[in-house]
Amino acid sequence: MPESTFLDSSELVLNMGPQHPSTHGVLRVILKLDGEKVMGTECVIGYLHRGVEKIGENRTYQQFAPYVDRMDYVAAVSNGLGYCLAVEKLISAEAPPRAQAVRVILTELNRIASHLLWLGTHALDIGAITPVFYCFREREEVLKIFENYCGARLTTHAFRIGGLQYETYDGFEEQVKAFSNLFLPKVDEYEELLTNNRIWVSRLKGVGILSVEECKEYGVTGPVLRAAGLAWDLRRAQPYSGYDQYEFDIPTGTSGDTYDRYLVRIEEMRQSVRIIRQAVDRLPSGPVMGKVPKALKPPVGEVYVSIEAPKGELGYFLVSDGSLQPYRVRVRPPSLVNLQALDRMVRGGLVADVVAIIGTLDIVLGEVDR
Fold first, then answer.
1. CB-side neighbour CA atoms (13 Å) of 363
2. How many CB atoms lie within 10 A of CB 237?
């Protein structure tokens, strides 16, 4: 038998996951291999499916709000913001200025916490152990702020339709400022560990390249799109919650590889601190909850609202039939859409590159499966 064939086939089919630690949840990737070279992949999802959208159609608008926190469970605050904005558009309501500013602060803190979890686990996947301890050290400080604000650390149900349920606690502004001052030097520490580390660079540069055209073809958004060179950020392109009042830059890459996606997310954390500082300095006084009826019966109609979540465009499509419950709920999760590009990114690479590319997509399976 020729050496090029194995069981009458030159390809080896290998299961990676669903219990593999580098698949970041319960993702099963079927790899077609020619030796170490990846010839193709197939993603098998659904292991964490909980029917979140169908649950939303059998709950009132307020009752469904805590469920969205459980989709991308490392960015629960962003999930809640997108849903609240969608319902508020449906009922033609708007959160008061103070509530909008607090929403921005908490959402940007959540972006930092999400990126820190990504960076620590991504480095761990590739073999760098120290960054995960550093990243979790700073993430803990963010979670303390969330815990002081609403009692939750992970599935942080911070917002309500029409504004906030809670006013900020005594010392909120001081604690946020203290974190901002503490955090920026720590980002420099992460870069000292990784950015010019020859092993890190050799594992990431030129791996998983995705061009702007390919990102558009697959619907990829967020840091993955910006790393390809397109400065598309919904906070700037379609401002919400007063983001047009803040000064910040949109970091972009040039080559669209795994290394550029790392650099983009590092810089995004610095820009989040910049936004937080502006929001705290100009935090207005006033109520934190608008006038919203306790029994929500939006007029018949439909809305789609999307925000710039840490992983990309998170969209909510709601259809109202005039009753207390939405007729249809549809979520556009960035993790699911970005995962579509995995096959294109890993073809021609090595098995070890698959681990790096899954990590650089920053997927959460709770959001993929819903």
1. 30
2. 11
What's the rounded mean pLDDT across residues 194-223? 89
Identify whether the C-beta of residue 316 lies closer than 8 Å to the C-beta of residue 81.
no
- What is the average pLDDT value for the chain, to the nearest integer? 88
Burial category of 4 from C-beta neighbours within 10 Å (exposed 0-12, middle 13-18, buried 19 and up): exposed
Whether the predicted pLDDT of 1 surpasses 70: no
CA angle 49, 33, 350 (to 5 degrees): 90
The letter for the amino acid at 81 is L
Per-residue pLDDT of 353-366, as tens digits, reads 888 888 888 888 88
Q: In the numeric block, which tokens belong to residue 244?
A: 């047009």
Domains in the chain (CATH in brackets) are 49-369 (1.10.645.10)
Task: Choose among 347, 340, 356: nearest CA to 45.
Answer: 340
Residue 40 CB neighbours (<10 A): 15
- Beta bridge partner(s), residue 15: 30
Percent of the residues in the chain that have a pLDDT greater than 70, as a whole number? 98
